[in-house]
Task: structure prediction
Amino acid sequence: MKAAKVVLSSAERAKLRLWLAAGKTERRLAVRAAVILGVAEGLSNAAVAARVGVRPATVSKWRGRFAGAGLPGLADAPRSGKPAHYVAAHEQRILAALDEPPPAGYGRWDGALLARHLGDISKHQIWRVLRQHEIALARRRSWCISTDPCFAKKAADVVGLYLQPPDNAVVLAVDEKPHIQALERAQGWLKLPNGKALTGFSHNYQRHGTTTLFAALEVATGLVKGGHYRRRRRVEFLHFMNRLVAQYRDRELHVILDNLNTHKPKEDRWLARHKNVHFHFIPTRASWLNQVEVWFSILSGKALAGASVTSPQQVRDQIDAFIAAYNQDAQPFEWTKQVVFSHHPRSQYANLRN
Result:
């Protein structure tokens, strides 16, 4: 069969070159433009296919489309193969099925299982709907939602300290990181048969005890002060607070804390004796409001993860060395959110359409 001849006008050639030059052009249009420009030069299908990186059959298809419909035939090409039979009501049925328990013996739904359950909806349409709503059935995430009836009031108090701290006062975010394990692991490099090298550690490890870190983050400067203890009780908390009061002598202290019972006994005689110290408690189950939790995450990722030690004292030395290095370039966390809410997830997949 003789190949269709392609002759381009100056306007068509300029349009095709524009498709190729535009950085955000869809790849399918860029490929078609390269094919038509190639065949217009008199190259064979095989030569154009080698230049563009497609099959000769693809070159022949778009050569014929252009010969029959011009540029619109390239930009608005009909879908090849069997027409799609997507029904709008199917989307609601798919989402509603996700709220039903999976068949006996299965722990969760997947695309093939939903298609078998619904019967008249293909697994391809099911995956299309899941992608549209960014639903990943195999992914599992956890969250902690505050049910504190005074959430708004407590959150506003803490956020106010971040955005507008009291004059001539120090705002400290204080919390504990308990049970930090001293783990001894075998570490090193592993050379794979394909030439790649991986670094890691053996899954076997030996425990050498634990330690507890008390930390105070100075909100205005980002500086961190730490204290090491064997346990996390009221006596250790007060010892750490006495150290902070001594370091900020004659300064008003506003301390942000969580609702642990060691922080807020029924009768706080220590707080009554220290008139310059004010405690501000975050809402229950809202630890993300305490900025020192952000620093704990940094500590875990940069100093503790993957460390191999043989005693709790080595863990303490590692933490102290990191604090000293961190404080050299410490910067305050930039808090910009003025109003925070306690969001609750939707209880059903079907509600995604509402």
